[in-house]
Amino acid sequence: MDNIFNELDRLRTEAMLLLSKKNELERKIIKLLKKQHTVDRVETSERIYMLRKKTEINENEETITRLLNYLHRKGKNTKNIREWKNKMFSKPRRKTVLVVYKKSD
Fold first, then answer.
1. What is the mean pLDDT of residues 11-31?
2. Which of 43-52, 65-74, 84-93 has the lowest mean pLDDT?
3. Number of domains in the chain
4. What SS3 state is found at 69?
5. How far apart are alpha carbons 51 and 49 in whole angstroms?
6. Is residue 18 classed as helix, strand or coil in its secondary structure?
7. Are 68 and 78 in contact (CB under 8 A)?
8. Which of 5, 48, 94, 96 is the S-S candidate for 101 at Cβ 3.0 to 4.6 Å?
């Protein structure tokens, strides 16, 4: 049992190291592509690399927005709630992510 657990722990550690290397390489690629302002995508023989802006949506903000829309449809005054929401949830930052497409033959 101990041998199996030790093997599992070794594999987990190896997987975490591989993920950190992958993230580091992605950051380097993003940095290189950002420096080249005129290049928006790079094609190799196997893959296509592109940068995309991704806005992360806060689940709490989304829930409050749905509630505001519901109350507005019912004819309720939502000005105070809307002001509070704008104060609590500032404009979300757009995060640059690397999108990789694999070419199919």
1. 92
2. 84-93
3. 2
4. helix
5. 7
6. helix
7. yes
8. 48
In this prediction the pTM is 0.52
Q: Is the pLDDT of residue 10 over 90?
A: yes
Return the residue matching tokens 């093997």.
7
Residue labelled with tokens 């296509």: 48
Q: Which two tokens stand for residue 53?
A: 């802006």
Same domain, 72 and 82: yes
Residues in the chain: 105
pLDDT in tens, 78-105: 888 888 888 888 777 778 888 888 888 6
Indicate the helix (H) or strand (E) that contains 38: none
Order across the sheet with 47-55: list the strands: 41-43, 47-55, 94-102
Same domain, residue pair 28 and 48: no
- Residues 56 and 99 placed together within one structural domain of the fold: yes
Residue 99: CA count within 13 A, CB half-sphere: 10
The answer to whether residues 57 and 90 belong to one domain is yes
Q: Which domain holds residue 4?
A: 1-38
74 and 100 co-located in one domain: yes
